[in-house]
Structures are given as structure tokens and as C-alpha cells.
Amino acid sequence: MPRSAGRAAHRLVSQTAAAPGSRQAHPPPAPAPPPALNLLISALLSAAAWTAATPLPAAATDVFLDVSIDAAPAGRLTIHLFDDVPVGAARFADLARDREGVGYVRSRIDAVSPDAFIASSGVASLSYSDVSRVAIAGGETVESLVEELAAHAHSPEAPGAVSLTVSQAKAVREAPVKTRLVAVKGKFVQVEDKRPAAPNGTGFVIKLAGQDGRMASLEETNLAVGELVGGNELAKRLSDLKAAQPTADSPYFKLAKKLGDRRADVAEKYFLRPFSKVVITGSGVL
What we know:
The chain is of the alpha+beta class. It is 29% helix and 23% strand.
């Protein structure tokens, strides 16, 4: 290209760029995120906003559990929550108020020991059907509860103590995986038993004045979150209900466990379970 033609072209480009009202080229707009990602981002922002706007309770709260025995109303247990166990107390309160449909209503009192304790395995699952829903205090894990357990502000063994089961005993955590023989297509094969499921931080124990020497201490596994302040007579009545008695010391039971007989595992799950059906029919914050 001649030099004069090149200078003319340069002047034309400069004039076009400097002309008022002239349009300059812009990069194409970034593609919009897919709808599913938008929903997820909105859900996370909503959860963060709720967490920021809803601090853990600064003061203790009273909650209640209404109980029935074989479908007949039996009375109310009233629990005063400690203010120095913020995550654990807020979690128990959330479960009592049935936050987002996850709570203690319809749960069972499934272990009792005369004058020693009553206990519930709590909520089977903490899964929420909608990702925009907010989990209970502490979330779906027990990490923050275990941290509070390490601080050990209150003893779960004190008479009247109400505690959440947040950890397995060290002996259970470190026990070797057991194996057993099962028949498969006419042959015996060795399989490993599943480890006991770790607690999800919703099961609870209400300790009474007595002791049950067959049961391990709660100090290692349970976070005390409150104390029973109403319904002591009801708690005593529940603890005295007839229940399936442990047979762990029986030589037949020990042999069945050693052989991997599943019937022994099933029987073990029902140890201390009352023969009467004890259900939490209502709960809330007072």
C-alpha cells in the first residue's frame, strides 16, 4: 500500500473514533448463568441472611415436650436450656419448635431405666426437601456440638440434666470392624459388619437421680444443654415402665454375636425399650 494511502486510512479511523455520537465496538455480554445456578445462589444468600439476622439465644429458654403412653396423654416435661451452651441449647430449641418441619414431635422415648434415665434416639434424618430451607442450629453435622462438649460446661450425669448425644464412646469409635460368616449360593463367605451409625446430635437423655451400672458414662458422649424443671413425676413414671432387659452377659447372646447372628443385633437394638409406646405428641418454646 502507498504511504499516502496508509496515512489517509489512519486519518479516517481517527475521525471515526472521535466523531460525536459515533458507536464504538463493545465485547459481547457475558452469558447468563443457568437457572439452576441462580436458584442455588439465591438459596445460599437466603440462608446466610437468616443466619446473620437470627443470632443464637443470648439467654436461656424453657421448652416443653408433651408425652403420651399408649396413645393416652401422660403429661408434660419442661426443660430449662442453659445460656452458656449456645449451639446445643439453640439446637434443642429448634427441634422443640419443629423448625422447618424437623423436630421432636412423633419421636419416641425408646430407652428407660428405673430412676436412672429416659432417652430418645431423636430425629432419624435431618435432610430437608428444599435446599432453600435453613438447617437447625449447628447444621447437619455435630462438629460445633463436639466443640462445646470439649468445653464441658455442665455434667450430663447430674440429676435432672438434659443432654444431646453428639459422639460415640472412644471404645466404639476405635473398635475393630467385626467379620462374620454368611452363606452365599451354598458357600460360606466372610463379610464385614457395618460400624454403628454416628449420632446426628438430636437424640437426648434426661438423667434422673439413680444410676444404672450397666450403662456407660455420658460424660464422653453427651452434651448437657439444659435441666428438667417440670414434670419430674412424669419422668420417674416413664423410667419405671417395663422394658426389654439387656442380655449382653448371657453366654447365648455372646455366642450369637460372635457368630454374627443378626438376631442378636436386632435384640440389642431393643435393650431397655419400654413395652409401652411412648411418643412425644407436642413440643415448643415457652
